[in-house]
Specification:
about 45% helix; about 240 residues; 8 strands; homotetramer; TIM Barrel; alpha/beta
Chain lengths: ~240, ~240, ~240, ~240
Amino acid sequence: MTTNMLTHDPLIIVNFKTYSEATGKKAVDLARKIAEIGIKTGVKVGVAPQFCDLVQVVAQVDVPVFAQHVDPSAPGAFTGHVSAESVKAAGATGTLLNHSERTIKLSDIQKAVLRSRELGLLTVVCAGEVESAAAVSLLKPDMVAIEPPELIGTGRAVSKEKPDIITNSVRRIREVNPTVKILCGAGITTGEDIYTALKLGAEGFLIASGVAKASDPARVMSDLCEAANRFAERSK
Amino acid sequence: MTTNMLTHDPLIIVNFKTYSEATGKKAVDLARKIAEIGIKTGVKVGVAPQFCDLVQVVAQVDVPVFAQHVDPSAPGAFTGHVSAESVKAAGATGTLLNHSERTIKLSDIQKAVLRSRELGLLTVVCAGEVESAAAVSLLKPDMVAIEPPELIGTGRAVSKEKPDIITNSVRRIREVNPTVKILCGAGITTGEDIYTALKLGAEGFLIASGVAKASDPARVMSDLCEAANRFAERSK
Amino acid sequence: MTTNMLTHDPLIIVNFKTYSEATGKKAVDLARKIAEIGIKTGVKVGVAPQFCDLVQVVAQVDVPVFAQHVDPSAPGAFTGHVSAESVKAAGATGTLLNHSERTIKLSDIQKAVLRSRELGLLTVVCAGEVESAAAVSLLKPDMVAIEPPELIGTGRAVSKEKPDIITNSVRRIREVNPTVKILCGAGITTGEDIYTALKLGAEGFLIASGVAKASDPARVMSDLCEAANRFAERSK
Amino acid sequence: MTTNMLTHDPLIIVNFKTYSEATGKKAVDLARKIAEIGIKTGVKVGVAPQFCDLVQVVAQVDVPVFAQHVDPSAPGAFTGHVSAESVKAAGATGTLLNHSERTIKLSDIQKAVLRSRELGLLTVVCAGEVESAAAVSLLKPDMVAIEPPELIGTGRAVSKEKPDIITNSVRRIREVNPTVKILCGAGITTGEDIYTALKLGAEGFLIASGVAKASDPARVMSDLCEAANRFAERSK
């Protein structure tokens, strides 16, 4: 599957974290539900399962798959590291980097972005606030995701609770990088959250518990995708 | 496959690190060669591929498979971590912990050993010298692997260069833990290295470049396994 | 001042953490109060201020002073590290290691204990639970401090809430190290907490907020020291 | 002492790392030599000794003093951390951050810069290559220092070996931050290295072994400062 993820069309990536609801066979099931809603609504979607689950999700579901992290090291004597090569060999489309639950050194973000680019992996670099988001944008990742850590997992959406973070990030990022795709996340659970964020300038979303731990993930995913479509409709 | 790995019979685990020679499909190929020599010689063998490759190796090769590391965290909001649950769901038999290339905090070794045991994963905790090896043995892993970091990857075998480390580790470990299986590693490339180490009290081996980067891994593996058999023969 | 800290007499070390109540000149003031109570009651006491405050406390107060951490690296190109040499040059008596707020790798505990011993610095290695406490005791520090992290700073004393951790730690530590001095800590604020812990087998204490953040640190310190004396009296 | 360090005049900061030649009393001696050359030549100079040595150097030498690192945490229960408050209380003028020997997470750079600013401490954020240097400049430190890690400690000066890194960094940094003072470092040992770097656009220097481990630090320091003056002369 080769949808171009880097257009200005809304993109929704679901981060499976290490949730037991999204591990092993359940990772495949969840990815399948998300992919189906993507196809039904025409909205671009992606999934970010655990390392061990990448191969199965890639093999069994037609959806772009992201790793949740890669280490910056080249192949070699690095026991226990996650090489970008192994993620690429697993068939992944890209990787998250520097998530607030797996923050890494600035020099490692830089190296991991470069290695990923060489291997043809898309990078989504996360940042917790405005200035860091601008800073990582200078490292030329394909996407940057702004997620205030204090809202992650709360169900209180960044677009409602801290709309300024989105608008200011978009403004500051665009000053230094005119093309990086700008995602946001943290606390997003409803179509309304999505719609508001798109109005504020976001171009995509990194969502985790809102979908992965929902009692009916497909229903939530539908709600989110339909909101993205309503916004696209309005914008025409 | 359910060989009991914790007997006193020699065990040889090959660590694939992040070597490009042992990533993706090449991980499966290498694991297959190792498994075949294990069957042919009757020596217990295991492999430790990268996280992304665990599922494929488990599915395609009849050999005990170890992860190279797991994080101590329970399932949950831990983006980018390697949960023991995901490793278990991938079908792994166990995991390495605290390898010198992926050392972790003492408290995390303790937590990871406990979680792994709950999930039925065997643990191989690595240590670089005698006192640390005894210390980790107190945490009751299934196996402990002594590897002087300065010899890793050198081809200068621990059993030849630093035999005292093996004999002293065996003595100190046995004072505090009478049952943990004792592996050693670092620089081992020949059957002679294996034979010497077994004489010194080692009960198994953690080997990486010696096999994984060999021009003919099957031949090296044969050499190692035959030496293990020669030792067993002699001991009768 | 050269009281022998490693006898079986109770020892109370106050950890200043990075509390603003115990930084800069306030570190000197607090250390002086603690030293005075030590002299008045005859109980052995020590203080562990921040790195930047070591020199002043050593110069101005007659009390054994501990760093809160040292890095394992030898002197050299290690910008931003805390060398054991600099701590020794500051006149410190010893150092804490592996506190739950500054946990370090097992191999680094081992190296830091060795370097400290070479330099004549006493080491107090912390551990959060029974098995880790026994494990670090094998590395032959001068003292081990058991502090369940979940009780630190709560005012709920380990000796009341989890007496088993003390008794089991003492038992397990003594099996592998007959001489290391055994401290405990976490939540200790009253003489009664001290008395109970001594009865359970503790030989000393690592205390932080209970003294450093008390409205009247001298009064609390008196209470603690008098309890230590009551226990010593009873034991005769 | 309150020289304004942030003008465009050349500034030379000597990083003492954990060199034994620059620890304890030797830190005071070395700082004194550096300060004297600064006064004699009229060139702005600074020193960055170890944490434990800050108080003594501040008390005994009239020179701006920098810590080598601070942790981002606020005062509190952070045993073993280096609080910006303790560095400020020691009388320091500022702090280095993210040196290649003490790299930190991007989010921690951001927090440490903010805390330092609140406390009136100047920040010198280090970066190893062009894009990272630009990225950290967005976090609005007072100074940024570009040091290719592969040249640190080699005696092969960045201004000779990799002049492009200086010119490109200056250009990229100025695009996103017009005022941050731009230092460079790595391998600088002679006045000629300084002169070349100033021509390439550097406004100051972070130097370590070139001075601190020199057989005659005062002579080297003189050479460096005189080169800075020759450059200033030429520029008039």
